[in-house]
Amino acid sequence: MSTASNALPALLARREGGVLVLTNNNEAARNALSPDFYLGLTEALKAAATDTTVGAIVLTGAGGHFCSGGDLRRIATRREQPVEKRRELLEGLHDLVRALRDCPKPVIAAVDGAAAGAGLSLAMACDMMVVARNAVFSVAYVKVGLSPDGGATAFLAEHLSRQLLTEMCLTGDRVSGERMQQLGVVNRLTEPGGALQEAVALGTQLASGPLMAMGSIKQLCRAAYSQTLEAQLDMEAELMVRAQGMDEALEGITAFLEKRPADYVKIRKP
């Protein structure tokens, strides 16, 4: 008989050089979400944000699936709870989405298999997506009488017309990795089983970059979809002026003028 003391950890973490690989480890339930996963991933992102040896993060799922979304058995019990309690529990997911958004390091989703419901939301909350051809995405909430959460509609609206967005949400139909690439959602498409390897390769490319500058770039890219041009110009000016005084800019410009590769890792402060 298993006990809580020997239960599998909800999140696995390992390093591939400067890349931190975080794995949703609920394989028996196709990596359905849990409070332990929310807590583990939030803490891992917070730690990675201040760890100068981590240059990029890859988020993936165990056993050939990214994430099947919320645990329906757990969700079914919420009808017995007050609305305020339901909202409190839902904010665990939304706080995780915010943590992915606010992490200063690049976060790459490596998607094989299913990314359904909140699993789709988590994948799209990442900065980039590497996806296998046979991966399947679904805004599946309508299939069980629910409406989307986790920012799914906001993320999809950055890529889709209102008509396509409405169709995906009202039908809950499956959309292939290839189709998601055609829609502009996917950065790199791989053969089945190859998403993690390709995501780590992309993360390795980014991990040696200027961390402060990349954090600023993340902020700019996130804000660009909701701000006016004037607001975006102000934000770009503020971050550019700050960057010009940083050691990263000194190293980058000096390396360019000396015709050598910039070494941003050596100037990182522990």
Tell me what the structure shows.
The protein has helices spanning about 35-50, 70-75, 85-100, 120-125, 150-155, 160-170, 175-180, 195-205, 210-225, 230-245, 245-255, and strands spanning about 10-15, 20-25, 55-60, 105-110, 115, 130, 135-140, 175, 190. A hairpin with a 2-residue loop joins strand 1 (about 10-15) and strand 2. The longest helix is centred in the middle third of the chain and has 20 residues, at about 85-100. It folds into two domains: about 5-205, 2-enoyl-CoA Hydratase, Chain A, domain 1 (Alpha-Beta Complex); about 210-265, Lyase 2-enoyl-coa Hydratase, Chain  A, domain 2, CATH 1.10.12. The protein is α/β, with parallel strands linked by helices. Helix content is about 45%, strand content about 15%. The chain has a six-stranded mixed β-sheet with strand order 1-2-3-4-6-9, with helices on both faces. Mean pLDDT is about 95; it is low at about 1-5. The protein is globular, with a radius of gyration of 20 Å. The protein contains eleven helices and nine strands.
CATH architecture of the largest domain: Alpha-Beta Complex
The CATH superfamily of the largest domain is known as 2-enoyl-CoA Hydratase, Chain A, domain 1
Report the major sheet.
Answer: 6 strands, mixed
Extended strand count = 9
Q: Provide the CATH topology of the largest domain.
A: 2-enoyl-CoA Hydratase, Chain A, domain 1
| CATH class group of the largest domain | Alpha Beta
Number of domains: 2
| Order of adjacent strands in the largest pleated sheet | 1-2-3-4-6-9
Proportion of beta-strand residues: 5-15%
